[in-house]
Design a protein that fits this description.
The complex is a heterodimer of chains A (about 250) and B (about 600). With about 250 residues, chain A is an alpha+beta fold. Chain A has helices at about 30-40, 105-110, 130-140, 145-150, 155, 170-180, 190, 205-210, 215-230, 235-240, and strands at about 1-10, 15-25, 60-65, 65-70, 85-90, 95, 100. Classes of the chains: A alpha+beta (about 250), B alpha/beta (about 600).
Chain lengths: ~250, ~600
């Protein structure tokens, strides 16, 4: 057994500090295993969120040596254990305690997004071709770990923007709805106004940290930005709109 | 007097996996004022981990499939111990529930003509599992979660229910605590739906998360309800075995459904040696027939790699004990040599990712090592098949914490369908029941105070016991003495140890304060873990035969006489656990005819 020092943030909204815990580490362990060892042997009240321990539920997001990661999918063998391993809560959301943050921002955003509105099923049920749903399936791989939200500098560095900006996870959700073959709603105005997609300047930080390899910027955000531009900033459409041409065929882009 | 916030509802649903979400959606749609309460954040419940698919006789791949074939497969997979009415409703209604998920936004993989694609799975006659690669549970929970959110259902996240209360003989409410603050909530409710999932955390090697501590089973038991079939525990044949830190993590049966085969250290496909008489007529005899079956299910019989899970888990256990296992104590699961790499990555993306990340194994190049892992409890709260009503008025249950649907062994894919079929029925049952209650039932203040004192007592005691240590020792005990293969002396040992653990659990003390304190949470969860462990060991000791997810080395054969009874567990007024035989419900003749040619 090899020993390792975990430098874990302990504290709550009123403040806190990193504390060192030196524990034994077993073969093949991931960061979450070692955090559990700390919990079971030295700090029973160490607060950490986790569920599946298999990269499927997205609960155990943290900043490991400063990098946003799922603790359950970060192997100790990938880290330099000759030095203390720092584990801190994700920064963008308010701290509750130790490694647990208040991510209710995300659940509030989810409520505000206009719901899926399918066309009524034809006789014999819906038909969708595999090729037409693959983009949607890519978006629906999202495990809601909120690492993309955590690294998005629009809200990480400017918490005041949270009132006007939904963040990458919710653009993925909006893109999924907008590109769903059965959906009939138009959320373009919502994406521009409530969603605040204009704040995103496509630095791709979100894409880089996605543990599900969703191409958030290229496949979700940029197409949504294009829809907004097409609808609101296309000069020809604006003129035709003023002239009353094409109003009855508002395209679902 | 305990300090708490109070909420009044018609129906509260405890647990927000597939069953709880579907129950809450239904109760709310029926006009009941509904709350959904869950231990984790919404969308993180165990359903999210389900991989292979949801079983429903849609007939999209094989038009020959229908509910009666599904019903027959389910009953035979359950070794005929299933509640026949639940198995019937399940098979009949699963297709509607799958189409409902689609209408709520789920994007299942498609057939070439644009319908929902279905895949092969253990014990199912035809390709029957609607799926999304190998992340079907994620698709299902997200669809239900989004639907529930848009319906405006009140959700209490990271909130754990700790006691149920009754007014006379009927349910009247529940006491819960916020995990974040440790503050109490009192729910007054006309009806309670339990949808809390399983018990896997009682075992050392498990595919289950920390949440699976038998809460719903225990809440119901303490409230006077009956638990049945607690001896039947499913050990999924294929969990990861290496490295040690990931031991138990699930490897989907979909690997075998997509063509993967089990091999021992001699490279032999050993499952052909383990075909019992019970399944002989429907199982391939040769490797050639088994391989043809993947492409033509009408003219070939199923590969023994896809026998029901109890059969495969026992076979792997035997191979390993005979010294024919893999280097780390499992067997080999090989899809690399049988399907092209590109196909594997597309059909089983999360398996590919999981092995690559956690074990440095490329499953498109080399075989996986797999072994049994505690996965699913067939036993649970006894419910009425049609309404989900438990034996206590006002109490309902659905999903894994209910019993009867899967008999002695659950078929893969039947869990996700169970969740939505019976989640809906329990939500409906609870809403209907609540409509019939004119005055809100009362909760006794003294009972609330006593429960609160018990919960906070952990901080005041000066005990020497660490809850993590007790849990680990309990897991070791259950794994080694109440595991895949059981015997009388070991079960008696287990019961003795469980008594000791109960004594020690009374002396646990916790450090820190009430705010998001996992040590305290575990100290409280130990009470339910110990309750269900005792129920499992007691029932396993009493059933002197082997059947499905209950194997006794001292009684290795199924006994037709035992096939007539369920074992029911209840709490006596003294607090002792009582166990008795009850008659297994008998199916009507028009259903029984499906089994005449079999045994």
């Amino acid at each position: 057994m090899e020993s390792v020092t975990m430098r874990v943030f302990r504290g709550d909204a009123s403040g806190g500090a990193f504390e060192d815990y030196t524990v034994e580490m077993g073969e093949g362990q991931v960061v979450l295993d070692v955090i559990h060892t700390v919990q079971a042997t030295q700090a029973a009240d160490l607060a950490v969120r986790w569920n599946c321990k298999a990269g499927k539920c997205g609960s155990c997001s943290a900043e490991v040596n400063g990098k946003p990661r799922l603790m359950c999918m970060t192997r100790m063998s990938a880290l330099d254990v000759s030095k203390p391993i720092s584990v801190a809560p994700i920064k963008t959301f308010p701290l509750i305690r130790d490694l647990v943050t208040d991510v209710s921002f995300n659940y509030e955003a989810a409520k505000r997004i206009p719901a899926f509105q399918p066309a009524p099923p034809p006789a014999g049920g819906y038909r969708m071709m595999q090729g037409d749903i693959e983009r949607g399936q890519e978006f629906r791989k999202c495990i809601e770990c909120f690492l993309c939200q955590n690294v998005c500098h629009v809200i990480r560095d400017h918490p005041e923007n949270k009132a006007d900006f939904f963040g990458p996870r919710w653009f993925v959700r909006l893109a999924e709805l907008e590109m769903h073959p059965l959906d009939t709603a138009d959320r373009t105005e919502f994406i521009r106004d409530a969603g605040g997609i204009g704040y995103c300047n496509i630095t791709k930080c979100c894409t880089e940290v996605c543990p599900e390899d969703i191409h958030i910027t290229d496949n979700a955000i940029i197409p949504l930005k294009e829809r907004v531009v097409d609808k609101y900033y296309d000069p020809f459409r604006w003129i035709f709109g003023k002239l009353g041409i094409g109003r009855d065929r508002e395209p679902r882009i | 007097m305990a300090d708490y916030e109070q909420h009044d509802y018609d129906v509260i649903v405890v647990g927000a996996g597939g069953a709880g979400l579907r129950a809450a959606i239904e109760a709310s749609a029926q006009g009941a004022k509904t709350a959904l309460i869950c231990k984790s954040l919404l969308g993180k419940a165990h359903t999210v981990m389900a991989e292979g698919g949801i079983a429903a006789a849609l007939g999209n791949v094989y038009g020959e499939d229908n509910w009666e074939v599904h019903f027959r497969d389910t009953m035979r997979g359950g070794k005929m111990m299933n509640n026949w009415r639940m198995a019937q409703l399940h098979a009949q209604e699963a297709p509607d529930r799958v189409y409902e998920l689609e209408a709520w936004g789920a994007l299942f993989d498609r057939t070439k003509d644009g319908r929902i694609l279905q895949r092969a799975f253990g014990g199912h006659r035809y390709d029957r599992l609607a799926h999304v690669g190998d992340r079907t549970g994620l698709e299902m929970i997200r669809t239900l979660q989004q639907h529930a959110v848009h319906k405006g259902i009140d959700v209490f996240m990271e909130c754990t229910v700790s006691r149920l209360f009754k007014d006379g003989d009927r349910i009247s409410g529940a006491l819960a605590y916020w995990r974040e603050s440790g503050k109490l909530l009192l729910f007054k409710a006309k009806a309670v739906v339990l949808a809390t999932g399983g018990v896997g955390k009682a075992f050392q090697i498990t595919s289950n998360s920390w949440e699976y501590t038998g809460d719903g089973h225990s809440l119901a038991y303490w409230a006077g309800a009956e638990l049945i079939d607690m001896e039947f525990m499913q050990f999924h044949p294929t969990g990861m075995v290496w490295p040690p830190s990931v031991r138990g993590i699930l490897v989907t049966e979909g690997v075998r459904g997509e063509g993967g085969t089990l091999k021992n250290s001699d490279g032999k496909r050993f499952m052909f040696e383990y075909v019992t008489d019970y399944f002989r007529a429907e199982t391939a005899e040769t490797v050639e027939e088994a391989d043809r079956w993947f492409d033509d299910k009408l003219n070939n019989r199923r590969t023994p790699d896809l026998l029901p899970r109890d059969e495969v888990a026992r076979a792997i256990n035997t191979e390993v004990k005979a010294g024919r296992g893999s280097p780390h104590g499992g067997v080999f699961l090989d899809i690399a040599s049988r399907r092209p790499a590109e196909y594997i990555r597309r059909a089983l993306p999360s398996m590919y990712h999981q092995f690559k990340t956690l074990a440095d194994i490329d499953i498109t190049a080399v075989p996986m090592e797999v072994g049994p892992t505690a996965h699913y409890v067939m036993g649970g709260i006894r419910v009425d098949a049609d309404t989900g009503a438990a034996t206590v008025p006002g109490l309902f249950a659905a999903g894994e914490c209910s019993g009867g649907m899967h008999g002695a062994n659950r078929l893969g894919g039947n869990s996700l369908s169970d969740l939505v079929v019976f989640g809906r029925r329990a939500g409906l049952g609870a809403a209907e029941y609540a409509k019939g209650i004119t005055s809100t039932p009362d909760v006794s203040q003294s009972e609330v105070d006593a429960a609160a004192a018990d919960m906070f007592g952990h901080f005041e005691r000066d005990g020497s016991e660490n809850p993590y240590t007790i849990q680990r020792e309990l897991q070791d005990t259950m794994h080694s003495l109440v595991g895949i293969i059981r015997t009388e002396s070991e079960l008696k040992d287990a019961l003795g140890k469980i008594d000791e653990f109960k004594e020690r659990a009374r002396k646990t003390s916790v450090e820190g304060n009430r705010q998001y304190n996992p040590g305290w949470h575990l100290a409280m969860d130990l009470r339910s873990l110990l309750t269900i462990s005792e129920a499992m060991a007691k029932a396993a000791l009493m059933r002197t035969e082997s059947r499905g997810g209950h194997t006794r080395s001292d009684f290795p054969k199924a006994d037709a006489e035992w096939g007539k009874y369920n074992l029911a567990v209840t709490e006596e007024s003294s607090g002792a656990m009582a166990i008795r035989k009850t008659d297994l419900p008998q199916m009507p003749a028009e259903l029984a005819r499906h089994f005449e040619e079999a045994n």
